[in-house]
Design the sequence.
């Protein structure tokens, strides 16, 4: 962020420097011009009448009949000050003096200003105007504009006869052919509709992804497709504008072919009275004959060549090269391809394939008793159940070291009778054991009355006291219980660290400086019935990791026992009376209840034993309600033969709404694929036809040669 701010500041500073530099150069150039204007020399020469009229017309000023002129010989410099990429102001200097020229000069590809040379300047009040410089002549420029207007009028009138001051003669006029009309008034380029359609397809796919809205897919994609291609079709078939084509005979004096434009130039013999230009395709320029009487045609409305002698014509180029005949077949193919790809990448393919099977298999099987499963034989069949129950299955997580609790019960089996939930029954002994463990290894809070007295004594002494919940009552019996537990778990990585902490607390309790190995034996064998019960107050922060160790022990043992219970579900066969195994996938998991029990990432991510007991009781109630509820609707995803029976896999997430949504997506995707192929084939045929015509034209030309 700081780097971009720095770059922006630098650019602003550079722009400010450039602006003031430009303004300084401008003031200096104006000053140099003013010095010349103030110098009244004898024997001045004056502009011709044509030059005076040209100045008045070009710069919209009123001049006297006598306008003095001077000749300047020196470097020509053109400086442009730009604002956000657009030309804001242009400064032209000759010999360091500011001069004025028409703005159109800088936009014309015909005029190239010299870097050095002689310029003819008119002195008008406090300004210098350029009359001629290098190839540029103001009079010729004005004459050329007037001549061009006159020529356009003469061509537009279509009146036979010679055009004044130009070596051109009008031979006749005709209406443009259909191909020529289509060339000049071409169908709208495909990208005008293609790009918005592509964006709508991509945005619709993103917004509708994962939603069971067949109508949404049909409206967003289908309506966009119909409306967009409707506009294309209307543009393709609409009536074209009419154009007039004038046939001319005359001499072409110059051919210009550069990166900006290509045109021919026609002017009178002296070139003093102006010229007229006609645009033409670039590949025609090599066949233009100069200073030879030729016949060519121009379009009145566009001032472009339509044909030149018998060698070139727009209609022939279009027939050979296919120019503008099908300008957006490629855009059509690209648009339909984007439509198909947008639908493809938002499809969940297993469900898309299943929806096709559902379309082919409309049968619904009613299951009233377990033996009715024998009628389920095909993938895509819909199942309606009135007397079936569920038994959850615990699946291992990706790491394989724990049950995938967030997705618990997303897979289960269908059973014929209700299933008892023994969650609390199985885990109660473990919870009782962990609760006893917590009581023995706990450091309880002191009574609030005792805390109040401590707080009073501290305030009288001018001291503060920590919060009540952070003061632990460290009893000797608790330290003894910790030592006994730790000695049973010597394999722990923190054994030595925890043992040292307990010894330091025991030494403090016994009021001795150093507690050696004999203290550990004393702590392990202490009999508080004969020695009495003692305690000391400690900040919980001084107890180190003892509280974390106790909490982790409770969490680990509880989760291990819960995992064993879940693994036992997968090995428990409740369908031994049937050879048919029915499994269900993609059910809505009970994420909320296991979040409450295990508290993934939340405040209760580590509970006490009693906290686990309460959360587990609630989970058992929800689980029992789910397992003992009937299964109303499912779709068959696979039927596989087993030894003496079969295995049926059901999907409960493939609802009718989702089925229609996938069918709509698939239909639109198939339409996009088919149309893409059609448009590509049309492009290939068009290309092949053009190659064939081109080869035929070349062979004909060779024969004529």
Sequence:
């Amino acid at each position: 962020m700081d780097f971009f701010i720095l770059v922006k500041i630098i650019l602003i500073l550079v722009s400010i420097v450039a602006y003031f530099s430009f303004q300084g150069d401008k003031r200096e150039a104006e000053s140099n011009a003013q010095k010349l204007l103030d110098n009244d020399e004898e024997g001045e020469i004056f502009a011709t009448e044509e030059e005076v009229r040209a100045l008045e017309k070009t710069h919209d000023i009123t001049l006297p009949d006598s306008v003095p002129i001077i000749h300047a010989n020196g470097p020509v410099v053109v400086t442009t000050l730009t604002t956000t990429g657009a030309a804001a102001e242009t400064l032209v200097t000759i010999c360091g003096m500011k001069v004025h020229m028409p703005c159109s000069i800088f936009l014309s590809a015909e005029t190239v200003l010299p870097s050095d040379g002689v310029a003819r300047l008119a002195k008008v009040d406090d300004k210098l105007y350029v009359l001629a410089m290098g190839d540029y002549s103001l009079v010729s420029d004005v004459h050329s504009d007037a001549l061009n207007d006159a020529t356009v009028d003469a061509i537009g009138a279509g009146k036979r006869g010679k055009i004044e001051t130009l070596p051109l003669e009008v031979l006749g006029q005709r209406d443009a052919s259909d191909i020529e009309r289509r060339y000049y008034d071409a169908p709208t380029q495909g990208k005008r509709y293609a790009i918005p359609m592509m964006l709508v397809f991509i945005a619709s796919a993103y917004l509708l992804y994962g939603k069971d809205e067949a109508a949404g897919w049909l409206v967003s994609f289908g309506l966009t497709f119909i409306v967009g291609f409707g506009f294309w079709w209307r543009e393709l078939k609409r009536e074209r504008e009419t154009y007039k084509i004038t046939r001319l005979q005359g001499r072409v004096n110059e051919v210009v072919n550069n990166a900006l434009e290509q045109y021919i130039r026609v002017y009178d013999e002296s070139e003093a009275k102006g010229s007229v230009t006609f645009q033409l395709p670039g590949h025609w320029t090599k066949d233009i004959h100069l200073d030879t009487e030729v016949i060519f045609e121009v379009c009145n409305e566009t001032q472009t060549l339509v044909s030149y002698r018998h060698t070139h014509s727009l209609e022939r180029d279009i027939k050979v090269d296919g120019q503008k005949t099908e300008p957006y077949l490629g855009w059509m193919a690209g648009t339909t391809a984007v439509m198909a790809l947008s639908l493809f990448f938002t499809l969940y393919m297993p469900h898309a394939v299943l929806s096709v099977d559902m379309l082919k298999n409309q049968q619904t099987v009613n299951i009233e008793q377990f033996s009715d499963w024998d009628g389920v034989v095909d993938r895509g069949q819909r199942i309606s159940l009135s007397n079936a129950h569920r038994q959850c299955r615990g699946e291992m997580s990706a790491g394989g070291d724990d049950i995938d609790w967030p997705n618990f019960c997303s897979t289960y089996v269908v059973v014929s009778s209700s299933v008892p939930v023994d969650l609390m029954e199985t885990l109660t002994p473990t919870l009782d054991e962990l609760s006893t463990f917590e009581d023995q290894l706990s450091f309880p809070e002191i009574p609030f009355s005792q805390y109040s007295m401590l707080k009073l004594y501290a305030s009288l002494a001018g001291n503060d006291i920590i919060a009540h919940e952070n003061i632990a009552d460290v009893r000797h019996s608790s330290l003894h219980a910790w030592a006994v537990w730790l000695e049973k778990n010597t394999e722990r990585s923190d054994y030595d660290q925890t043992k040292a902490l307990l010894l330091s607390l025991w030494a403090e309790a016994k009021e001795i400086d150093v507690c050696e190995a004999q203290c550990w034996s004393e702590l392990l064998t202490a009999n508080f019935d004969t020695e009495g019960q003692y305690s000391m107050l400690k900040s919980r922060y001084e107890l180190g990791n003892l509280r974390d160790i106790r909490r982790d022990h409770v969490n680990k043992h509880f989760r291990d026992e819960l995992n064993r219970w879940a693994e036992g579900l997968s090995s428990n066969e409740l369908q031994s009376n049937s050879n048919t195994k029915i499994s269900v996938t993609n059910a809505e998991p009970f994420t909320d209840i296991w979040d409450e029990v295990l508290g993934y990432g939340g405040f209760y991510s580590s509970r006490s034993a009693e906290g686990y007991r309460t959360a587990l009781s609630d989970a058992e109630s929800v689980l029992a309600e789910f397992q003992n509820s009937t299964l109303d609707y499912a779709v068959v995803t696979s039927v596989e033969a087993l030894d003496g029976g079969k295995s049926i896999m059901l999907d409960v997430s493939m609802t009718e709404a989702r089925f229609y949504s996938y069918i709509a997506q698939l239909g639109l995707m198939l339409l996009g694929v088919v149309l893409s192929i059609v448009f590509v084939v049309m492009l290939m045929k068009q290309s092949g036809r053009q190659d064939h015509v081109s080869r035929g034209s070349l062979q004909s030309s060779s024969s004529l040669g």
Notes: Residues 233 and 356 are 33 Å apart (CA to CA). Confidence is low (pLDDT under 50) at residues 106-112, 692-705.
